[in-house]
């Protein structure tokens, strides 16, 4: 049975039949004279001759079975290989990315926003270690599971740690440990992550997963209020000794966490703050509940703060990446 490679068949929900698919297929046949064509799809004939075709209005799963039947009956004893890829060329309103800016002032750059379909695509291109997947799934059954960072966010945090070559990290707000485990996994064996959390029950889960992942020796769990724990690190003489910090705890305390972390992180070190877009509320001047106002003011302060370089990134609920100058 000849099957096209899985890459030909989209993993996410089947697009509608109205789509047009572009396929580029390369094929090598050891002895073309052995070919006997009884081809149900006219556009496959040029493929066999020219080794490629495109714009076929047939959904990939149907194409796959048609090709299988066709090729089985067409080749008796020849070796052949098919490589294929596909892409949509026509987008429906469902699949179209939402263009949020196309402004002349910014060179007509099209800026798109994430759609559910696009986000699925991002997740299908996100590498999530098995142990993190298990933790995420266990946490999903718990109250507050929406608090954990998304897999694509965790991947970015881990990558920042790797790019920095970070050895000493801090996390403020551990919950069940998803983001801290992502960081601990990429720290070198002698690396250290100070993981601060006030909720003992959550920490039990986090510690179980650090253990299972074999990273317990890298995580210094502090069951404490964040401000107290950060102040004691400073009192302990650890100022300017950390490479990376991630803030994901009480939103109204962000300014205080930031000031303490700025003392603890070295020049060139990075502080990442989660939820800076606060479900989009920060951009709506009519919304003025205390948490929204607090994050909005915090973002404004960071924008004006020359002690750090900043980059606001719309991933998850929005993160601010700050580099200490
Ligand atoms: C958004 S969750 C953290 C999610 C975590 N980063 C993850 O990806 O799974 C926030 C956590 O911060 C903790 N927290 C809130 N205020 C705190 C404080 N003042 N001190 C220590 N932990 C705090 C909460 O108990 C909660 O578990």
UniProtKB/TrEMBL annotation:
Domain of life, per lineage: Eukaryota
Gene3D superfamilies: Vaccinia Virus protein VP39
Pfam families noted in UniProt: Methyltransf_3 (PF01596)
Keywords, alphabetical: Methyltransferase, S-adenosyl-L-methionine, Transferase
UniProt xrefs under PROSITE patterns: SAM_OMT_I
InterPro entries: Cation-dep_OMT (IPR050362), SAM-dependent_MTases_sf (IPR029063), SAM_O-MeTrfase (IPR002935)
GO biological process, alphabetically ordered: methylation
Molecular function terms, GO-annotated: O-methyltransferase activity; S-adenosylmethionine-dependent methyltransferase activity
Signal sequence coordinates: none
Similarity comment: Belongs to the class I-like SAM-binding methyltransferase superfamily. Cation-dependent O-methyltransferase family.
Name assigned to this protein: O-methyltransferase MdmC-like protein isoform X1
Provenance organism: Cinnamomum micranthum f. kanehirae
Lineage: Eukaryota, Viridiplantae, Streptophyta, Embryophyta, Tracheophyta
């Amino acid at each position: 049975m000849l099957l096209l490679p899985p890459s030909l068949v989209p993993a996410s929900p089947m697009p509608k039949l109205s789509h047009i698919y572009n396929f580029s297929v390369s094929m090598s046949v050891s002895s073309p004279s052995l070919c006997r064509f009884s081809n149900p799809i006219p556009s496959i004939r040029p493929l066999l001759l020219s080794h490629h075709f495109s714009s076929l209005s047939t959904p990939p799963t149907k194409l796959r079975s048609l090709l299988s039947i066709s090729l089985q009956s067409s080749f008796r004893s020849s070796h052949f290989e098919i490589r294929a890829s596909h892409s949509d060329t026509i987008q429906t309103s469902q699949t179209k990315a939402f263009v949020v800016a196309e402004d002349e002032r910014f060179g007509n750059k099209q800026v798109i926003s994430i759609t559910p379909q696009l986000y699925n695509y991002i997740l299908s291109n996100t590498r999530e270690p098995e142990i993190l997947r298990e933790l995420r799934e266990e946490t999903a059954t718990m109250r507050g599971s929406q608090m954990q960072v998304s897999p694509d966010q965790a991947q970015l945090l881990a990558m920042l740690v790797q790019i920095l070559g970070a050895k000493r990290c801090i996390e403020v707000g551990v919950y069940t440990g998803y983001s801290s485990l992502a960081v601990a996994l990429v720290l070198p064996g002698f690396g250290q992550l100070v993981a601060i959390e006030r909720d003992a029950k959550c920490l039990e889960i986090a510690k179980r997963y650090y253990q299972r992942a074999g990273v317990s020796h890298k995580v210094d769990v502090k069951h404490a209020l964040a401000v107290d724990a950060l102040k004691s690190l400073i009192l302990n003489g650890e100022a300017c000794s950390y490479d990376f910090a991630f803030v994901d705890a009480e939103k109204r305390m962000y300014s205080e966490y930031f000031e303490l972390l700025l003392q603890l992180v070295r020049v060139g070190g990075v502080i990442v703050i989660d939820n800076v877009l606060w479900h989009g509320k920060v951009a709506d001047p009519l919304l003025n509940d205390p948490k929204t106002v607090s994050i909005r003011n915090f973002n404004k302060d960071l924008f004006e703060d020359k002690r750090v370089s900043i980059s606001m990134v719309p991933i998850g609920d929005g993160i601010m990446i700050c580099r200490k100058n």
